[in-house]
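P.,

For your records, the input lines for the assembly:
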Amino acid sequence: MTTEIVGDGPSGIARAAGLLRAGRPVAFPTETVYGLGADATDDRAVAALFAAKDRPRFNPLIVHFADSADAEGEAAFDARAHRLAETLWPGPLTLVLPRRPGSRLSLLVSAGLDTVAVRVPAHPTARRLLRAADVPIAAPSANRSGTVSPTTAQHVLESLGGRIPLILAGGRCAVGLESTVLDLSGETPLLLRPGAVTREEIAALIGPVSLPVDLPEGDGGTGARKSPGQLRSHYAPSVPVRLNARLAEPGEALLTFGPDLRKGELVLNLSEKGDLTEAAANLFAMLRALDRPGVRAIAVVPIPEHGLGVAINDRLRRAAAPRQ
Ligand code: TXA
Ligand code: MG
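Structure tokens returned:
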């Protein structure tokens, strides 16, 4: 199969929407990372998407909607979900909620759970595509399973070229990290994946948010509340990643942050200004750029553990974790 990249003007949108409606997978930009989309109401389309990604079947997928009214047709929103959706959507926040009885969504997107992860993306191209396709779109990040998420159309091509028919190009992703995933299916809100929307922002709207490790046995059950997609090794470049490095050892590339005089072919700076938002947007692209033959490992300097730094460090720890 040849993979075509098209611009996000009206004809590109129409082609992407047509393919989605015909049950084919299409890559498209969101404000977080590029997603690989499929019609979330079509079991065969969702299965084709798992196949294109080489993804373990037990990972449930995020379903994207054009607006929150559409999302409410498939998932049961409580007062907390309404509050968050009103304030933070469209945007990089995913809510895990009970599936509505009679939901049209494929059971495959929930991977057998009675919950579904829903989000309304902010990227204008994603929103135009959702409107044109007029179906909810299930979309994991548009890369092979276990590798670094794509933040440009070129990254998608490198990872999935030959495996999908179309990539809708819409520039570089502004956020650069996957959405925050918040589980509201039980009494205690649980932060399953840190992201651009911080735990503090969520807590200011709906009260305290727990982490999966804080959860007492028996709250809301078992499988669904442990994020099934959160494999420990994930977002991994092909060379090892070494964290909290001060110096690069011989043969290592260096990923640094903040004012740093070190320069060189194998040195990249996530943000010379020390701006965590800029660092998040650069993270995946720079990990890819340093992931080269002949590099022994990527050494990464310590990143501050506050604000977006929490999400950046989460991704870096996964990139550095022992490979499965
Ligand atoms: O920013 C993003 O969220 C991107 C863009 C494309 O929207 N998508 C993305 O999807 O990162 P993916 O499939 O790579 O990550 C989905 C995450 C996983 O951690 C998965 O475990 C969690 O959402 N998830 C999905 N459905 C769930 C459910 N029903 N219960 C618990 N966790 C769920
Ligand atoms: Mg992913």
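Two observations worth noting. The first helix runs from residue 10 to 21. Residues 255 and 268 are 5 Å apart (CA to CA).

Regards
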